[in-house]
Amino acid sequence: MSDTEEIRLEPCEPGRLTPAELKTLFLFEKLTDEQLIWIAEHGCTMRVPAGGLVIREGDPAEAFFVLLSGTISLIRRVGPDDVTTTRTEQRGVYMGATNAYLKDDGVPRKYMASMRALSDSEFFMLSAADFGRLMREWFPMAIHLLEGLTLGQRSMQAAIGERQRLAALGALSAGLMHELNNPAAAASRATGALRERVAAMRMKLGKLAAGKVAPDRLTALLNLQEEVIERAAKAPALTALQIADLEDELGEWMDEHGITGAWDVAPVFAQGNIDTECLSQIEARLASPELLDQAIHWIGYALETEQLMSDIEDATGRVSSLVLAAKRYSHLDRAAHQWIDVHPGLDSTLVMLAHKIGQDIRLVKDYDRTLPQVPAHPAELNQVWTNLIDNAVQAMAGSGTLTIRTYREDDHVVVSVGDTGPGMPPEVRKRVFEPFFTTKPVGEGTGLGLDISYRIVVNGHGGDITVQSQPGDTKFLVRLPVSEPPSA
After folding, report:
1. CATH architecture of 338-481
2. Which of 51, 133, 76 is nearest to 100 (CA)?
């Protein structure tokens, strides 16, 4: 259905339905004769040929329709597609300006769906103003109840939505602080240990000099120290078992050569993948057995200093990556609407939720890096990723496989968030995107996360979000158009 399709209807014919005929419609069967006369005078009948578009979704809601004859369908726009939600030929069904009874709060009333005649059809029509007037004047108590229900639900949704966003922000902040605390504490510990090692190096160097080492020997020892550090930097990483075996070998060599505190020094050399052959080279170049103990400790301090500086570099790099992830997640420094690659947002969301994912959930990322950029609001999409990933983690109850996959499907980029949880029964899948619907215990869920995600993807980005589920395999599929939607 084209957004520019023109609505062509035959002129409305006033006065064609009598009060008796109106009374045959279930909507009006309990009204008084005076009320039926009023409706007959203010309403009219309209014929629509087969295929005719009666109302269009998003247009101002100006009329209330009651089907007299024919077959009609109600249609909702989901991204670029038209989805038929209802098909009926039941006489008396109604549609159109059904919310005209609400007080005028300045919010434009629009048709919530499109209606098309599938066969030659006839309708009884009231203007939105007349329908709203009769409802307010004839059924004041019912209107109070309906207004309270509608407006109360809106207020509740707004309040709970705000609280949910604050709770999510608090959880993300706590998780981020937890993630930042680990590398910050590691950097602090390494800095304190580094200060001690540097001081010890100065003392050992002084003792070596006091030992009257020949200048050429001291120079050779300094060169050897640099070679040892360079060798440690280029050495391949060892397994824990290999390091333990190497520690034993180094400890035995040091004990045989009278090195004091061998149990403290051997682990440092083993961590740098320095073997006994290297220690023998140090002994040969020094050519002063009485200074070997101090030389080994001095080189050990140098190795440990390098290791501590590497630890500090890793820790501060981790802090920087977390800050960058938080920056990408919030997009505080970026325009609200832009062309984006979906992968950085997914990665930053995974970083922000790392504390929830934990160690017992296996993360699988299957990204198609050749995907085109999509027009989007990055911060809003990150909220969608947060809701879907958080739900997947909760569904797995702490253990399982979380799979994030991206691929192209026609003119859409698809992001799939899958989990190996127990799955959803059909009755839950049908209602999963309804506001306030939740399967979580009282107090643990508001039922708005997926509703918000649906509105962000469908209404805000012209895309679609669906769910596929069976025991052990549940996937939420988010489809985003690669071109700017007409409503953007």
Report:
1. 2-Layer Sandwich (3.30)
2. 133
The CATH fold assigned to 13-138 is Jelly Rolls (2.60.120)
pLDDT tens digits, residue range 369-422?
Answer: 999 999 888 878 888 898 899 889 988 988 899 999 999 998 899 999 999 999
Residue 68: closest CA among 90, 49, 43, 51: 90
Question: CA 16, CA 1: separation in Å to the nearest integer?
Answer: 32
Instruction: Determine phi and psi for 468, rounding to 5 degrees.
Output: -125, 130
Domains of the chain by residue range: 13-138, 175-321, 338-481
* Amino acid residing at 471: P
pTM: 0.45
User: Any long-range contacts for 301-304 (C-beta under 8 Å, 24+ apart)?
Assistant: 301/197, 301/200, 301/201, 301/204, 302/201, 302/225, 302/228, 302/229, 303/228, 303/229, 303/232, 303/268, 303/269, 303/271, 303/272, 303/274, 304/193, 304/197, 304/268
Asked whether the beta carbons of 7 and 116 are under 8 A apart, the reply is: no
Residue with tokens 């970026």: 334
* Cα–Cα distances in angstroms (integers) from residue 75 to residues 56, 62, 107, 109, 111, in the given order: 9, 18, 23, 18, 11
Q: Give the DSSP letter string of 198-267.
A: HHHHHHHHHHHHHTT--HHHHHHHHHHHHHHHHHHHHSPPPPHHHHHHHHHHHHHHHHHTT-TTHHHHHH
Distance CA 327, CA 98 (A): 45
Please give the structure tokens belonging to residue 218. 């001291």
